[in-house]
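Subject: two folds for Thursday's group meeting

Dear M.,

Sorry for the delay on this. The cluster queue was jammed most of the week, so I only got both jobs back this morning. I'm pasting them in the order they finished. Each block is the input sequence followed by the predicted structure tokens. Could you check whether the formatting survives your parser before we put anything on slides? The first protein is the one we discussed after the seminar.
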Amino acid sequence: MLPNDMFHTDEPSPIVVARDASYGAAGYRSFEFASFEVCPGDVVALVSVDTAASRDAVLACAGLVHPTSGSLAVDGVELARRARRSLRAPSLPRGFAGVGVFTGLFDVDVALTVEQAVARECAYRGDRSTDVLDYLSAFGLATHADRTLAVLDPAARARLSAALACAGGVRLATFDLNDPFLDGASLADIRETMGLLRAYCAERGACAVVATGETDACDAFTRVYPLDIDAAERLRRSRAPRPAHLKMASTDEGEVDA
């Protein structure tokens, strides 16, 4: 079941809608019975204690993992295997969704400078008109433009992953705060990065879906969806201020009110 307020008319139409989406293959079980939505301007956290579950769910939103049951629609395109009639795997339009750093899947060349890495990502997504230095300023990276990725501190790496996910004017940005590339990033670093990302998405009508296992930073997001019972319990116990828009997520053990 989706949150009841998805039917309010004062919200824009969601870009991402998941209904009881699950993913598993060859004995591997990842996220299960996940229901959430993402609207323009949103920066949504998918939270799981098993960090692979939120990582897979975020990759599914980018069209890179196809749920094996339930429904996951992105911009009206149904991505779940068993929810669609066609046997052909669907794909999102080029440049619609962007990804940040996913080690082992979407790695970055640490010998590149920040400007080179972002410029290459923009070009890959078909955007050659963006002023990269101006774009980097939106993520607090303009002064890091000529630094190689190898020397960036964790805070700058977190902002870079967000910048790479949004590069090219995508409508949907996806990245993983659990990724080893971001090791060492503090709660303050995460909150700062999410604040910059929220400002960027609000200005451009884009949205972002972020994987995390960090429950103490839930106040940094516009919506938070726990993907499992343990994550929901940790969110309840978290000392961090909780946003009024903290949503519910469904799990295999029933609905969880975070």
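Second protein, same layout:
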Amino acid sequence: LITDEEHHKLSKRCGHSSFEDLLEQGFLTEAIVNFVALLGWSPADNEEIMSLDELVKKFDYHHMSKSPAVFDYTKLKWMNGEYIKKLDFDKFYEMALPYIKEVITKDYDLKKIAKMVQTRIEIFPDIKEHIDFFEELPDYDVAMYTHKKMKTNAQTSLEVLTEVLPILEKQADYSNDALYKALCEYVSEKGCKNGYVMWPIRTAVSGKQMTPGGATELMEVLGKEESLARIRKGIEKLSE
């Protein structure tokens, strides 16, 4: 018997009782097979991530359990995330593209965006919440500029953004490496840590606490004009 986390028999109502349900929810075939094979059975070595061939080789009915197996949705998502990480990038991009296009309509390098999220998602629909800020800067709270570990607050962030703005206005090359180099020069002149500068910039360009890439990676995708507009908006918010 297979039950849900509350130990009730799995039913159609729970939305993951069929293989097709799971495919629609953004799970990979290989991850579903791997997960289902381990319901009520486990190999002697307790290995969890296995290909179909490995499952065939290792299967031994002596290791089957008589008690009901729990369909742990959280574990399935984790397993799917492990499979997504291992996907060939071109294959991942092909599968991720419809989800990216649901959110992004602007002329951005979608491959760069896909690269950022491949190691950060567990199922394909997760992509949208990771990248929505590229399309439009959300209305965020300035409290986000305060980060204990980075030693930043609204005041220090305003100072940093005001000082880096002319540097970024002069910067012609908006590739990740060139931006990082320019900002590292500012960091060493200021005599502070990287995070002290990168945190406020990342907050200003994304408006989010968690992002799939660092400040300069995001700016490379957004481009010069949009990055500067967002930093000016950050200065404006912090000045209020």
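Two things I noticed about the second structure. The mean pLDDT is 94. The longest helix spans residues 215-239.

Cheers,
T.
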